[in-house]
Amino acid sequence: xxxxxxxxxxxxxxxxxxxxxxxxxxxxxxxxxxxxxxxxxxxxxxxxxxxxxxxxxxxxxxxxxxxxxxxxxxxxxxxxxxxxxxxxxxxxxxxxxxxxxxxxxxxxxxxxxxxxxxxxxxxxxxxxxxxxxxxxxxxxxxxxxxxxxxxxxxxxxxxxxxxxxxxxxxxxxxxxxxxxxxxx
Length: 184
Hints:
Strand content: 5-15%
Distance between the termini: 27 Å
Number of strands: 5
Order of helices and strands: HHHEEEHHEE
Radius of gyration: 34 Å
Number of helices: 5
Strand order of the largest sheet: 1-2-3
Shape: flat
């Protein structure tokens, strides 16, 4: 007997008409169905372990190739940096370039950018005159407080205090369907 052969294969390969007529009608059949679910999950877990190990082996091989590529790239880039010091490069405001048939060597110049801490700036800029226009006041919904005053009844959102049916764009009832589970 093939070790990958499962009892559920018998049922799953039958015609659709036969599947619809087959029913679980007693505890023994229900227990058998649970065993089949368990067997199917165990088979998947076995297969997953093998597949994950194979993936790990491939990742290790890929990591080795990446390290090899990084070492070679680093070596040749350092030699190109040494060489570029000996040639005249085309220079612009932001970079220097040197063109060769196989590609370009580019040295980008240092660039200054702002590094900011908005909270610290906001706290300190309030003390300076003439910077009021750069401070924003932001509105935000107090959802936690509002939610405490609402209830869902027959698909309607109702204010518990006033009894008013609340219809506000952006506020809807979402029905999360129930879930069937088999545990063992």
